[in-house]
Description:
By secondary structure, this protein is an alpha/beta fold. It is built from 16 helices and 7 strands. Bound molecules: guanosine-5'-triphosphate and magnesium ion.
Amino acid sequence: MSLDNQAALHRDGAKRPEWTPEDGGAEFASRVMDGVSAEGALLPRAEHPVPKRRELTAADCVSGVLSGSRTILSRAITLVESNLPVHAETSSRVIKEILPHTGKSTRVGITGVPGAGKSTFIDVLGNRLCEAGHKVAVLAVDPSSSVTKGSILGDKTRMERLSRHRNAFIRPSPSGGTLGGVTRKSRETMLLCEAAGYDVILVETVGVGQSEAAVRSMVDFFLLMVITGAGDELQGIKKGVMELADAILINKADGNNALKANTTRAEYDRILHFLRPATEGWETKAHTCSAAAGSGIGEIWGVIENFMKTVKASGVFAERRKQQTLSWVYTMVEDYIKQKFYGCEAVAKERSSVESRVTSGALSATEAASELIGLYEGSLARARTG
Length: 386
Ligand SMILES: Nc1nc2c(ncn2[C@@H]2O[C@H](COP(=O)(O)OP(=O)(O)OP(=O)(O)O)[C@@H](O)[C@H]2O)c(=O)[nH]1
Ligand SMILES: [Mg+2]
């Protein structure tokens, strides 16, 4: 059944209070009542300290997330995103306890150059999926977020309609600093969303050659969004990302661009023919859509559904999920060792002298590496013997 028909059925089923506007989400479930007069009633704010919100226990988080509470879900995500050592034990207990309730969603990664229309597309697709009865979570992976702080907030405004839908949950990118840090947190956030009942997870990442592989390694289906006339068709720059994609979507196929978009689609299909497919047993193809006009959205969701059916039937799906979990383990191990090495005092003390001896040619790179490793291992040994 097409996405639009599913939406119509779902819409007629649910009774909505008459005062809420057509596309209003749960936020519109309240009516504005006349307030009490403020005269003499309220003391100035300073004298009423706001009671500190009680820290959630692991049990609070687990039961709240499993019951589908968005507030608790947000707080549980903030907990797993925290770098504070005090939160580490609680957050790993939460992840451990919700794990049996995860893995049942369709995980879709969406990448593309800045301005390609990823957020607009997610808003339209996400809204249709919600209308059709799905619960959609949107995550962003933006390694530059600790610097830009902004871009994803900009995204939230682009997903204005979706962010108000009661079946949707949108979470900006964690600012983890390292790409490894961002993706670890995003993976745990994805598990929390799955445990909270979200059956479609859309992960947006800006296609600047940094995070595509990382996002690819945490999703089932990877979508590359491109636009016509960007002057980089057929150039090698996208080859690496094209080889990760399960579909290429030419967006903004509207107005004067519609015809050009079709030509671009044919060009991409020609290139894809020569590339190794990103997923065994699946042929990556190019498609067109207009996120602004809402055309081609149902079709690309049909492609994703067909993909999921194909890879589940062939066993590729289960195998990929296993490999993804293993690579996640090693990403965390590598991240930990890196942090320990660069955080090691003995290494930090000698680093600049080692670097200047290397750059002056007095020390070979290999010698420098073994000297730094020696310093690190020495400090570990001292820490062990106390
Ligand atoms: N004509 C047209 N414009 C579109 C379409 N989709 C998005 N846009 C416009 O393209 C601009 C960028 O859209 P976004 O959805 O923010 O793009 P993005 O890929 O999420 O951008 P970043 O998050 O910055 O990487 C906005 O002005 C949109 O209104 C489309 O299908 N047709
Ligand atoms: Mg965006």
